[in-house]
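Re: the request from the purification team.
They wanted to know what the chain is likely to look like in 3D before they choose a buffer screen. I agreed to run a prediction and write the result into the notebook, where they can find it.
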Amino acid sequence: MTGAEVPDEYLTGYTQILADVCATGRRLTREELSLLRAHGERAAEDGHGLRKLVRRHLSEARAVAPTLTAAGIDLVLAAVEQAVDAFAEGHERAQKLAMRQEEADRREFIDDLLYGRSDLGRLAERAERYGLLFSRAHAVAVAQGGQPVDDTHPATRYVETALVARFGERRILLTTKDGRLVCIAPGDQEDVLAFFAKQAYASTDGGRVAIGRPHPGAGGVVHSYEEALNALELADRLDLQEPVLRAAELLVYPVLTRDRQAMADLVRDTLGPLRAARGGAQPLLDTLTAYFDAGCTAAEAARRLNLSVRALTYRLERIHKLTGADPADPVHRYTLQTAAIGARLLGWPQNEL
């Protein structure tokens, strides 16, 4: 046979159909078209490329052409066109079904991986298919923009193209989850996640990226992913302005809130008297936050709050008078700063403690 790489089974009945059509001058019947589509589907499922298959069909048509020319070249070409089109339709249909199944399998794997579901042995087998080796530690970065993204979003394609161009075939998995971009990379390849953060920030119009710590095994991916999500949530609650957050640099906050009741008591006992101020506690709490964030530099804190230094100093004195703790005193400063952080984490004074 011509083109030995294409088995004859995918051309069963093809030349006979051409002969019958050319002998009668009719178009292909529904049954003949269905047969050709079925051949195309089976060829696609068996992994044969459409280009070689079409070339084989044209080669077979050329071989039998001398016996068909009595019908006229136009009729022969029309019959071949119909037959090849039906075969290609079946091939493309099978390809689309395979792609949809592949995407469904990938999405199921991502869900199982990030939620810690499925048998770990089975999960590890599936992970290798997507470039992950659980014998290594992995870290997860999560990017969140103003608008949710999915696998077909331009931002996803932009970041994926940039990662492939920069790192080639490294074991990196890029996906989306709950409207966010997610990148999973070996824990010792910090350059990958740093580059992902830069590209994700650019493609999401100034979104925010959080990077979890490296952890070993399949459970380590879940742990790192949850750390990144917690960092994003923490950034919203504390109004952190940094575009890239590293869970390793934010460990103090989970420690502070581990005993929620103790933190609530500290906030209530230390900052509760601020409720007696004119305008309530919030302006004075904002003053404390800006003062500590500015490194206890009054001029910088005043600039951030759009106040004069004199007005800021007055507020600090008011805080001292109401709470009995002086923000400028190193002995009192730690208690006030911890209480101020706790207030932001617990949503005080909006929320009652």
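For the purification team: The chain has a mean pLDDT of 88.
Please add any questions underneath this entry.
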